[in-house]
Each structure stands twice: as C-alpha cells, then as structure tokens.
Amino acid sequence: MSTSSDSTTTTSATTESTHETAVVLPANLHARPAGQLARAAAGFTSAIQLEYKDRTVNPTGVLAVMGLGATVGSTVTVRAEGHDAEEAVTALAQILATAE
Amino acid sequence: MSASVGIVLVSHSAELAAGLRLLVEQIGSDSVPLATAGGTDDGRIGTSYDLVLDAIRSVDRGQGVVVLPDLGSSVLTARTVLEDHPRADVLIVDAPFVEGAVAAVVTAASGADLKAVADAAKEARHVHKL
C-alpha cells in the first residue's frame, strides 16, 4: 500500500517538493482536531496525506481522519507534495502536536 | 473571505437538530451559516414546512444551500418545500445525518462551493468510522 517513511526530498527541478514529518500524538485524535486538520488542509494546493499504521487518508476528509482512530502516544505521519508542501506539513503537524 | 454555502438541518426533533448544531460548530466552524428546522410548529416531534422554508431563507448568502434531512417525513417535507420553491442552488442531499452535517460544515468552512459541500455530505456514507 503506502511507502514507509523516508526523509524530506526534493523531487524535481520545479518548485514542487515532497515533505513529511512524523508526530507522536499528545492525545487521541478526536473530532475537534480532525476538523481543524480538515480546514487547514483545504487551504493548501499540495496533495497532503496522513498516515497512521497501514492506512493513509486525505486530511481534507474530516470523517476519514476521525476514522483512523489514532490514539495518544502513537505516530501519525504528515506528507505533502506540491508547491506549498513544507508549509502544509508544518501547519498540520502543529495541529497534531497540540491536539488536546 | 467570501460568504459560505449555507446548511440546513431538518429533523423530527428540535433537540436533535439543536444538539447536532452544537456538535458541528465545535468540530467544524461556527462561521458557516447554519439553521435548524426541528419538530413541528408547536414543538412536537414531527416536521414543519414553514420551519424548513424559513431555515433555508435564513442561511442563504448567495452561495447556495445544502439541506440535510434526518429521515422519513423530514425528507418529504424538505422535498415539498423545494418543489414549491425550486432553485438550482438549494440542494437536498441524501446523507447520514450526523456524519453528513459534520462533513458539510467542515467543507463549507474551508470555502468550498455548493457542489463540493453537497458531495462531502454524500460521501460521508462511505467513510468507515471504525
């Protein structure tokens, strides 16, 4: 299915790039942070993925994010590819890292 | 930011609609125009043509309105209202009530257009919660 995590890479000669970061959840991934992630993700042009265990979802889908069932202490990887990939990863990782 | 698509929650129960409203405002946004049409005109379990019509008018900001009925006569009443007041930019959407409302409000809050909001609600049927 999805690839395992690797470090940040620049994929081509264009300004498009791929970024990713892993976040250890400080709390279960509840409905409220899922909503924050979805709204934040919609503001970027890059293709964004959240990866948890062996599942990958598009974070613009609030229900899919909730459906991950990601629990406190587990790791969620944020990956983005596109012109604003770095900003997208930073923004979503921030939401994940500060979820209550 | 420009105006958002409006959302109407139609339920047999005023309390159910009001509770769902509180939930979606927490998960999604309290900035999306959202109205409830719950119960009958005199507060009993049932649906009200006038409450549905008023709710649609109250959330119309010119970007379209998505109407989400819970089941049964909510669907019939909402359809009757839309048949009497046909508009291309007011859509009744077949979606699970809670999940569809959450998806619709979150999508509307991100500035999506009417079709995207309606699609988000419809697709809620296919998202597993486990």
UniProtKB/TrEMBL annotation, chain A:
<keyword id="KW-0813">Transport</keyword>
<keyword id="KW-0762">Sugar transport</keyword>
<dbReference type="InterPro" id="IPR035895">
    <property type="entry name" value="HPr-like_sf"/>
</dbReference>
<dbReference type="Pfam" id="PF00381">
    <property type="entry name" value="PTS-HPr"/>
</dbReference>
<comment type="function">
    <text>General (non sugar-specific) component of the phosphoenolpyruvate-dependent sugar phosphotransferase system (sugar PTS). This major carbohydrate active-transport system catalyzes the phosphorylation of incoming sugar substrates concomitantly with their translocation across the cell membrane. The phosphoryl group from phosphoenolpyruvate (PEP) is transferred to the phosphoryl carrier protein HPr by enzyme I. Phospho-HPr then transfers it to the PTS EIIA domain.</text>
</comment>
<dbReference type="InterPro" id="IPR000032">
    <property type="entry name" value="HPr-like"/>
</dbReference>
<feature type="domain" description="HPr">
    <location>
        <begin position="16"/>
        <end position="100"/>
    </location>
</feature>
<protein>
    <recommendedName>
        <fullName>Phosphocarrier protein HPr</fullName>
    </recommendedName>
</protein>
<feature type="region of interest" description="Disordered">
    <location>
        <begin position="1"/>
        <end position="22"/>
    </location>
</feature>
<dbReference type="InterPro" id="IPR050399">
    <property type="entry name" value="HPr"/>
</dbReference>
UniProtKB/TrEMBL annotation, chain B:
<dbReference type="InterPro" id="IPR012844">
    <property type="entry name" value="DhaM_N"/>
</dbReference>
<dbReference type="InterPro" id="IPR004701">
    <property type="entry name" value="PTS_EIIA_man-typ"/>
</dbReference>
<protein>
    <recommendedName>
        <fullName>phosphoenolpyruvate--glycerone phosphotransferase</fullName>
        <ecNumber>2.7.1.121</ecNumber>
    </recommendedName>
</protein>
<keyword id="KW-0808">Transferase</keyword>
<dbReference type="GO" id="GO:0047324">
    <property type="term" value="F:phosphoenolpyruvate-glycerone phosphotransferase activity"/>
</dbReference>
<keyword id="KW-0418">Kinase</keyword>
<dbReference type="InterPro" id="IPR036662">
    <property type="entry name" value="PTS_EIIA_man-typ_sf"/>
</dbReference>
<feature type="domain" description="PTS EIIA type-4">
    <location>
        <begin position="4"/>
        <end position="130"/>
    </location>
</feature>
<dbReference type="GO" id="GO:0019563">
    <property type="term" value="P:glycerol catabolic process"/>
</dbReference>
<dbReference type="InterPro" id="IPR039643">
    <property type="entry name" value="DhaM"/>
</dbReference>
<comment type="subunit">
    <text>Homodimer. The dihydroxyacetone kinase complex is composed of a homodimer of DhaM, a homodimer of DhaK and the subunit DhaL.</text>
</comment>
<dbReference type="GO" id="GO:0016020">
    <property type="term" value="C:membrane"/>
</dbReference>
<dbReference type="GO" id="GO:0009401">
    <property type="term" value="P:phosphoenolpyruvate-dependent sugar phosphotransferase system"/>
</dbReference>
<comment type="function">
    <text>Component of the dihydroxyacetone kinase complex, which is responsible for the phosphoenolpyruvate (PEP)-dependent phosphorylation of dihydroxyacetone. DhaM serves as the phosphoryl donor. Is phosphorylated by phosphoenolpyruvate in an EI- and HPr-dependent reaction, and a phosphorelay system on histidine residues finally leads to phosphoryl transfer to DhaL and dihydroxyacetone.</text>
</comment>
<dbReference type="Pfam" id="PF03610">
    <property type="entry name" value="EIIA-man"/>
</dbReference>
